[in-house]
Amino acid sequence: MKTIITFALALCVAMTAQAGDNHFGKKIKAKGAISASELTQKMSGKETVDAKVSGTVESVCQMKGCWMKVKMEDGTSMRVTFKDYGFFVPKDIAGKTVVFEGTAKLKTTPVAELRHYAEDAGKSKAEIEKITDPEKAVTFVADGVVVKD
């Protein structure tokens, strides 16, 4: 009887965990998020902007889940890292909708860092060596992330 109760309780916990959102870092709510394209408009003329953003994950660091790329409306992607390297996201969330809160900034990423990211993403040595120019883009440092089911 004790085994049946333990099994039933474990099953309830597992089902509850799968039914809700998955939070990483600071616990945030999805409500009130702007789209990634709205973020670009909000950044107009500013170096940094605090925001809560919703978007679709394009790719995730396959080493640890220590960054993700979110699709932008113009076909590019925005790199999202996590505050103080304090949390990671699952490596299998490409294609899922996420909400993340923190600070967006206009940043020039040096070649060495771009190559490091390409290595983390599992790119070939030839693809990594093709990276020869720094990249100026909007990046985001998230305090918290919600992965939507």
Task: Fill in the keyword field for this structure.
OB fold (Dihydrolipoamide Acetyltransferase, E2P), alpha+beta, 28% helix, disordered N terminus, globular, 7 strands, 149 residues, 5-stranded mixed β-barrel, 4 helices
Task: Give your account of this protein's structure.
The chain is an alpha+beta fold and 149 residues long. The chain has a single domain, classed as OB fold (Dihydrolipoamide Acetyltransferase, E2P) (Beta Barrel). It is 28% helix and 38% strand. It has 4 helices and 7 strands. The chain has a 5-stranded mixed beta barrel with strand order 3-4-5-7-6. A hairpin with a 6-residue loop joins strand 3 and strand 4. It is globular, with a radius of gyration of 18 Å. The two termini are 34 Å apart. The relative contact order is 0.23. The model is unreliable at 3-19 (pLDDT under 50).
The geometry reads as globular
What is CATH's topology name?
A: OB fold (Dihydrolipoamide Acetyltransferase, E2P)
Which segments are poorly predicted (pLDDT under 50) over 5 or more consecutive residues? 3-19
Helix content: 25-40%
Sketch the topology as an H/E string, one letter per element.
HEEHEEEEHHE
Can you name the CATH architecture?
Answer: Beta Barrel
User: What integer is the average pLDDT?
Assistant: 86
Number of strands: 7
Q: Please report the number of helical segments.
A: 4
User: Structural class, please?
Assistant: alpha+beta
Name of the CATH first level = Mainly Beta
Measured by DSSP, the beta-strand proportion falls in 35-45%
Radius of gyration: 18 Å
Strand order of the largest sheet: 3-4-5-7-6
* Overall tally of domains: 1
Report the span from N to C terminus: 34 Å
Sheet of most strands: 5 strands, mixed, barrel
